User: What shape does this take?
Amino acid sequence: MARTPLIAGNWKMNENHIEATGLVQKLSWALIDGQYEPEKSEAAVIVPFTDIRSVQTLIEGDKINIAFGAQDVSKYDKGAYTGEVSAPMLAKLNCKYVVVGHSERREYHGESDELINAKAKKVIEYGMTPIICVGEVLAVRKEGRQIEHVLAQTKGVLAGLTPEQVSSLVIAYEPVWAIGTGEVATPADAQEVCGAIREYVKGEFGEEAAEGVRIQYGGSVKSSNVVEIMAEPDVDGALVGGASLDAEEFARIVLFYKA
Ligand code: PEP
Assistant: This one.
């Protein structure tokens, strides 16, 4: 089964809804200029909640070939949870992807694997695709325990899912020490952990789930390093932070397959 690479731009808490439409428009032009072929590399923007409606209106109105999604979701459907946004609300806006368990949510909001698992289940329940983040901090990498650590996270975040559900979701391996630091894992580092995640999925959920699940690398990905990272057999895309705020640079990353 061929996996279409997913290049997803995580805008984090950047761009208001007016800036967002400008950025998506510029990205669309840059992709058209680059003769983008979505079946070779799927582009997605993961935007702040307040941008989603504007981004949806532009993308659907102009039939732009870019997927969009949200950066987080509540584990509840509705009710007295002030400040939360639910999966049915995001589904109603036609979000395709929802990132869950980003390391910034784990670190600043104390999110556990159990909570991330509950969020991923909600995303799937409402017909969207979770991009579930895992990754080790520097201290763990220095002790050489990155695989053990990431597989424990993977076990927790995938608990209770069916093989069919696992086969269509996305796991983003993001070593925390490489996020926003300019420090990139080597392609071999990325492959080591992405390969171990796929082996784990194979052991727990079977061959088809392992063949279908897309495993992204994330951490200071740029057009200058994406080609060698994407050449690794178990890396099926990238979750891109900083570089996704520059339309032309992000388009170059999406178009990595032309290099
Ligand atoms: C991220 O936010 O998921 C990320 C990988 O950020 P950056 O590309 O800026 O390291």
User: Anything to note?
Assistant: The pocket of phosphoenolpyruvate is lined by residues 10, 12, 174, 179-180, 218-221, 239-243 (CB under 6 Å). The chain has twelve helices and eight strands. The chain has a mean pLDDT of 97. The first strand starts at residue 6 and ends at 10.
